[in-house]
Amino acid sequence: MSENQLMNMQTDECKNSYEALRKDYDELVLKSAYHEQIGTLAAGIAHEIRNPLTTVKGFLQLIQPFLAQIEKEEYAKIALKEIDRANEILYEFLNAVKPSSRVSTSIDVNHLLREIELLYESEAKLRNIILTIKYDTENPFIYMDEKQLKQVLINMIKNSIEAIDSRHQGRIELSSEISGKYVNIIIKDNGCGLPEDAVQSIFTPFFTTKSEGTGLGLPICKKIIDESGGQINISSRLGEGTMIKIELPLCTEFKLNA
Fold first, then answer.
1. For residue 122, what are the CA distances in angstroms to 118, 133, 157, 174?
2. Is 211 helix (H, G, I), strand (E, B) or coil?
3. How many helices (H) and strands (E) does the chain have?
4. What number of other Cβ atoms are within 10 A of residue 150's Cβ?
5. pLDDT (tens digit per residue) in 192-233
6. pTM value?
7. Considering just the CA atoms, what is the radius of gyration of the chain in Å?
8. How far apart are CA 221 and CA 200, in angstroms?
9. Backbone dihedral region for residue 71 (phi beyond 0: left; psi -120 to 50: alpha; all else: beta)
10. Which one of 80, 96, 189, 191 has the minimum C-beta count within 10 Å?
């Protein structure tokens, strides 16, 4: 085979590879545009559903005194409760699909954990729960939206508190530890735990183990952490408790200057 023939073959292979990559890219662009349009449409539908729900709720509240007179007020209470639940689902859904306006800053992880401890200190005591904090001695810093990280941690602590039977001594441990280029924020509890199938589905939208849960809290938390370059891992044993590990990229320049 001549040198020219070999070059022509290589050129053809490059062209074919380019065309294949171009085709894949075009398909990805179309899928991305499709998903964006679906998200926008879904958000618009959610807004439209909230408006009539607000009207129905107002009318129910107006007729509630009359239902009380005929001893049927319980029907209004149930209906109002279900409307509030529907509004909560729509609110969380809208937060999940709308574009996020993040304001990233350097975050002192140990200081943030202390704030979370103070926030839940009183509730833990009322529920017979010992809340403890273990800090990494190297004082880790990360770079992300602090409000969003607080939202994640508050959601996780709230889940741990709700998983603990107040008749028994509850324990929740919140800790930070540096692992290579990452910092781990770990929440452990001795609550009711989860079966294996529930752990596998825990981040699926609308999946919930709670009778009044929306099933959107944890998927939103996962979305926040994923978009910050981290990940969430959950391990749990039924009747023994749950451990949540949030892994986030370490901001080394702020750690070194601390």
1. 8, 15, 13, 16
2. coil
3. 7, 7
4. 15
5. 898 888 888 888 877 777 766 666 778 888 888 998 999 999
6. 0.62
7. 25
8. 16
9. left
10. 80
- Any idea what DSSP says for residue 104? E
Are 219 and 204 in contact by the 8 Å Cβ rule? The answer is yes
183 SS3 class = strand
pLDDT, tens only, 23-77: 655 555 455 554 555 566 666 677 677 778 888 888 888 888 888 888 888 888 8
Task: Write the DSSP symbol of residue 144.
Answer: E
Question: φ, ψ for residue 176 (rounded to 5)?
Answer: -125, 145
Q: How far is CA 14 from CA 19, 240, 245, in A?
A: 9, 57, 45
Whole-number Å distance between alpha carbons of 121 and 124: 5
Residue-by-residue DSSP string for 146-180: HHHHHHHHHHHHHHHHHHS-TTS-EEEEEEEEEET
Name the residue with higher pLDDT: 14 or 148: 148
Q: For residue 241, is it left (φ>0), alpha (ψ between -120 and 50) or beta?
A: left
Give me 230's structure tokens: 């981290």
Q: Which amino acid is at 212?
A: E
